[in-house]
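Chapter summary example: a protein plus iron/sulfur cluster.
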Amino acid sequence: MGMKPFPVYAEQMPGGAMIATTLETILYQGQAKSLWYLLFGTACCAIELMATGASRYDFDRLGMFFRASPRQSDLIIAAGTITKKMAPRLRRLYDQMAEPRYVIAMGGCTIKGGPFYYDSYAVEKGIDHIVPVDIYIPGCPPRPESLLEGCIHLQEKIKKQKLAEKWPKA
Ligand code: SF4
């Protein structure tokens, strides 16, 4: 059974012009411009992540603010080596976030195990079998510019999103 179409809202502007939009558009435009993120930094990539949040690169200008609680976060940025012991914690934090929620995998270790891919029995070879990943940012480590670009791509992806795509069974 498909989703019901969303209601269209109309607002009359001074001079008589009309603006029409949908609840879906308001929801996703708003979320894209105010992504609150949870840090899951575990190794060297986390240093670049922290630098991105500091004054030189200034994450805040994209409407992105760090939160210490998954309950207040829309986005989790995983940066660094993820061990098998840590994987259930990552999943639990993800599960504690409210929908719609997003994941960025930052750096070679998070994406595919990085330099530990062949020789470590203790490292996860990619987090996308623990949580669904929306954006991958390769590098060892990726520079803050790469992370900023990845976040802008995520914002664009959110703005174009349809509720039926995020929740196909709704
Ligand atoms: S990808 Fe490279 S810089 Fe990032 S955590 Fe792994 S080893 Fe460190």
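Key point: Residues 43-45, 80-81, 107-109, 114-115, 140-141 surround iron/sulfur cluster (CB under 6 Å).
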